[in-house]
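Weekly sync, protein design subgroup
Attendees: M.S., D.O., the rotation student, P.L. (late)

Item 1: inverse folding check
M.S. brought a backbone from last month's batch and wanted to see whether the design step gives back something sensible before we order anything. D.O. pointed out we never logged the input encoding, so this time it goes straight into the notes. Structure tokens as presented (260 positions):
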């Protein structure tokens, strides 16, 4: 159990490098930090939304609705089955990234791998760097590194979405309060492993979530943001596909005109 605890906290590299001198330890740590980041990014670049929409439905999800390659847009466009599969696949790739990072260099590796997985999801190298918003990846990372804070954010997200029916608003508010929750939890002495690194990571994650929802913020301000439907019917018909594509084009023209 003691060995497992050490690996969980510090990773196997710390155990391997303990017999090395300080310079070599730093070099090995830096090397595996890069390996962890690259592995996380490459896994994150596997966009399940794009793969499912193109392979199963013959349509690129990025040409419909919000243009986002994520579970919410999949729900609105292709229905609950496609959205659920997308959600699970996005969770799985981030979970794999976090576990690899933690196995190699401990908690630091978990955060680095998870954040780079999120970055890969947003800017996937396999799909011309146009992906999703990284919310599911961020949530999965938080779940694995701090389940208590994850539970708090899930409650906040659920309340906001149930009241407003805006998924984007729930994500934005969670991105905003996440660093604050981390800070006050540490300040109150409720987390013994709190470090400046973790607080910095929480700020970066929250900022990335909010930044990727900047267009949603504009639509919320203008009253043009789409609400989530809790009805049984979610999947679009062929005719609705055409209308959605046209609506997306009209929205883009509207936004561009407004910004000129």
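Designed sequence read out in the meeting:
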């Amino acid at each position: 159990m003691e060995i497992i605890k050490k690996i969980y906290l510090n990773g196997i590299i710390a155990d391997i490098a303990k017999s090395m001198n300080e310079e070599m330890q730093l070099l090995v740590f830096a090397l595996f930090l890069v390996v962890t980041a690259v592995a996380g990014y490459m896994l994150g670049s596997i966009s399940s939304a794009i793969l499912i929409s193109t392979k199963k439905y013959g349509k690129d999800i990025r040409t419909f609705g919000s243009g986002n390659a994520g579970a919410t847009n999949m729900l609105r466009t292709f229905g609950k089955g496609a959205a659920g599969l997308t959600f699970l696949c996005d969770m799985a790739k981030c979970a794999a990234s976090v576990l690899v990072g933690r196995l190699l260099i401990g908690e630091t590796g978990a955060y680095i791998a998870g954040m780079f997985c999120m970055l890969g999801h947003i800017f996937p190298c396999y799909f011309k760097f146009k992906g999703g918003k990284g919310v599911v990846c961020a949530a999965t990372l938080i779940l694995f590194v701090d389940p208590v804070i994850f539970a708090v954010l899930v409650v906040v997200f659920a309340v906001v979405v149930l009241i407003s029916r805006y998924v984007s608003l729930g994500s934005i508010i969670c991105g905003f309060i996440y660093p604050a929750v981390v800070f006050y939890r540490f300040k109150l002495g409720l987390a013994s492993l709190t470090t400046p690194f973790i607080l910095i990571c929480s700020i970066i994650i929250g900022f990335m979530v909010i930044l990727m929802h900047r267009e949603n913020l504009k639509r919320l301000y203008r009253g043009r943001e789409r609400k989530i439907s809790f009805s049984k019917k979610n999947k679009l018909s062929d005719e609705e596909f055409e209308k959605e594509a046209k609506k997306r084009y009209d929205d883009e023209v509207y936004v561009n005109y407004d910004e000129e």
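Discussion: The CA atoms of residues 165 and 229 lie 7 Å apart. Residues 2-245 form one domain.
Action: P.L. to compare against the previous round before Friday.
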